[in-house]
Amino acid sequence: MLTEDARESRLFKEIEELMEGLSLRTVEAVDAVHQGTHHMRVVVYKENEEVNTDDLSAAYNIIYPRYSVIFGDRDLELEVSSPGLQRSFKDVIEFSIFRGKLVRAYSVSFSSYITGKIDSADDGFVTLSECSIEDSGEKRDSITLPYSDIAKAKLEYRWEA
Q: Which residues make Cβ contacts (< 8 Å) with residue 115, sequence separation at least 6?
């Protein structure tokens, strides 16, 4: 199931503020301590453009110095990446981040995958347009799903036109 933790995460909010200056959106920001090393993973996204290595480098160069000082008593291992073409969603906030993108979501109430463009995402619901319900082959103009009805979701990429 998808979580709703990102909006409450202090780390996510801090990274999100830092990335705004680079015109990047924060998709994921997680950290963990393992055997004396602080591991941190940040996923960033750029609307209307692909994230390139310069974007990732700029994000790394802003995040690393700040958090190496904050976590001064531990080594910091930082990974900054793009979401990729077929990212599996971890949090419901990703529906609002990827608005306009094609998504494939498993709906519990339909007992099927539904593929469609993210038209809108607000508190509790996501609306998909140009939808197809895979098991029945049914096509719809739009479907509104509560987040609680979505077991899993990921970005969908059409390899062929």
A: 102, 103, 104, 105, 131, 132, 134, 156
